[in-house]
Design brief:
alpha+beta; seven-stranded antiparallel β-sheet; 7 helices; 30% helix
Length: 289
Amino acid sequence: MNQISGRDSFRQAVFGEETRRQFDACYPEQARVLDHAMASHDLLTLEALARLGTALPKASVEYNPGDLPVGIKPEDVPENGMTIGDTIRMIDQSASWAVLKNIEQMPEYEELLLSLLGEIRPILEAKTGKMLKPQGFIFVSSPDAVTPYHFDPEHNILLQLRGEKWMTTFPAGNARFAADEIHEGYHVGGHRNLVWQDHFEGEGTRHHLTPGKAIFVPVMAPHYVQNGPEPSISLSITWRSDWSFEEADARAFNGWLRKRGITPKAPGRFPARSKAKALAWRVLRKFAG
């Protein structure tokens, strides 16, 4: 396995041949742990990330106490009383969780993101079409921090760089774990956090992530994360596809129908398409705007 470090490190392969084969086998619908070869990087040290968090727009930074219950409501999440820079620099003792969003806003991080996605781009584009809207997110977590139960609209590979964590995933598109109404609300501005029920615990798949391990997470697959006993740094590389945008727009259109007394059928998962509903929502949105 190649060891990656330094400003020029991302010019080397991070996803090896076997990892790309495994990704090809699971993409786009099965969560799976993969290997990666990014041991370290100058842009991903705590000091570099503290500077990045300070430089990013306020809307691109989210941080809060890490000792939260899995199913906390969005409106109940408190602040941690620190700046983002201090939260990251003191992550080993700040009992916090932080995410730096859209790191591609900074040129050097955009270069890092695109180099990583470039290694798997031929595989993903062969299945879900052109890679759209590449984005990067960095998660910095204190020991034992919890990322509450939620879902995300992107195709996502999360690379564990420091510390360890356990991610528990649930099947995407199963209304038992995320009701259709929650999907619909999310795509018109609702929160990504989901309603947790204790009996879900035994029905998810628990994945152990350590440095050198990554996990692919399908679009809108519910999951939550429990950090290990040491500070954690993870890099999430994400992208969208025509299919994922169709699914999102079809969900939004279903919400519009539901408000008018119609109980719509949920969009099918890949490779099912939702072109008609997606187009209907795009037309409605255009004329409403």
